[in-house]
Amino acid sequence: MKIRNVLATxxxxxxxxxxxxxxxxxxxxxxxxxxxxxxxxxxxxxVVVDSIDKASRTVVAKRxxxxxxxxxxxxxxxxxxxxxxxxxxxxxxxxxxEMMLKKGGDGIATRAESTETGSAKPGEKPAAYEAKKVAxxxxxxxxxxxxxIVTLKGAKxxxxxxxxxxxxxxxxxxxxxxxGVFIDAVAIAxxxxxEKAKK
Length: 199
Known about the structure:
By secondary structure, this protein is mainly β. The chain is built from two helices and ten strands. Strands 1, 2, 3, 4, 5, 6, 7, 8, 9 and 10 form a ten-stranded antiparallel beta sheet that branches. Strand 3 (about 60) and strand 4 form a beta hairpin. The radius of gyration is 21 Å and the shape is elongated.
């Protein structure tokens, strides 16, 4: 999955209030071409608005198993008055990583962080997303062929990557570089319920 597609997905579907976000599992990395790797993880959840207290700006939502969840909506939740009982609140968390091997290299590790955000327009149902992006270049400082481990040292962190494909592992040498992009996006949207489902 391309990083730009992940961002587009996050921008299209998505919540100004995130209730109890969970850490996703480690992104699974797969080979997508010679020296090219990519991976993505997506987690989603949907709850239904059960009641609304406009004075305290609190929404009580019902999970699929019937449990109730109280959500305090601060001023960052725009268009709060557009939320109705029966509406659905859909949240998505997307993590993606894309990397490419660079033979040789100048040995300079870099890291650039940026954040992209968006929210609903006035009069629309509440919706928002935030996508954190890290573009990096890391140095290959060790290759353990026996354990199939490649050690990368970036501008901020040193990490070990498991490369399962022996043919791909042979392509990677100490002194090479890896260029990549990491995306962590959270998005939420309030979706209007069908008229007959509203209370």
